[in-house]
Amino acid sequence: MDADSTENNNGAESINVNRVHIYVLLSILMYIYCDSNSVTHPNVQPNNQLVLSHTPNRSELWISVVESKFRPTIGTVFSSLEARIEFYGKLHYSPVHEHNIGDSSSTIETIKRRDKISRIGCRAYVRFSLLNGLEGPAILNNFSEVHNHHLTSVCYRDLETIWKSLDMFHKQLILDNSKLKIGSGKTFRQVKELVHRYQNIGATLVDFKNFQRYVKCYIRKRDADLFLDRLKKLKATQNQFYFAYDVGACNCLTRVFWADSTSIRNYSFLGDAVSLDPTYGTNKYDMVFTPFTGVNHHRKSVFFAACLLLHEDDESFKWTFQHFLNAMGQKETQFLITDQCPSIKKASPSVFKQARHHYCMWHITQKITYKVGSALSKDSDFLTRFNAVV
User: Is residue 353 located within the same domain as residue 366?
Assistant: First the structure.
């Protein structure tokens, strides 16, 4: 037992030593990466250096060395809050944790950032005298550029707030890709391929996801208006395009019908038999998608029209059939093939005066086992005679 436990202890020590070696190796590689991959940002000077000094009690103080044109001058007037923020970003005082902003009467209001780094007591600050409110012009009164900690490493600068900003290119690309059902993750990787590295994107994946979420929140209550605007644009570009919609008591879209010029032309040649299948209810609005389809000479499905229905009742189907006839120039079909929905059976004769209503064969065959039993439904002679009748 002692020999086994000694061998196990040696193995555990070997594993721990290997882990230490791996950690040291990763630290060295990360240092080399941070030193060799500097990221350039338009608002930050990439060649900033740090000067280390000490207080009488041997505490370390860090000062960022920048060019004289980027160093603040007491008495400088800034026209707006945005101008002060822009100048502050160019100075690259990203680790500053306290902004002291005062008015012209020297009454000072302290605004502290909610940042974990501020807990170490860094005294770096800038102080302005406001001339006309927080958004108006201000004069630089005082500033301190001394930090009691090391500033952010170069390889982590792209994670700071002043580096992360979605420009119009990013936002437009997110919007265009969302129309193509491309999420923010793939869009983020696409931008990375364009700029060659993630550090050059200028934002993080979370920023991409947040912007896409903001867009969805903005259009949440306008999605029906956007859909109708799309149909109106199609109507303006296509002379034969037809659409109709109805709004319920709660000011919500309850039913929409549309048919384009190609579908209307297909119906004029292949509209002898029309199939209606209101069974597609897989959208987040719980509206039933009801397509009108037919079959061409190659036994391929042909699209005639479509509608979205909130309720599968008699009134909704009657409204749909009436607009279908209006779109097709009052030309009725000879055969209307549907499932065994009672509402369709009741609404179709009141609109289609000459069409013969038939049930879909697939729905009929699905009920054979339930109607005649499992034994008879598997009998080959019965199925042959049944198919001949159907």
Answer: no
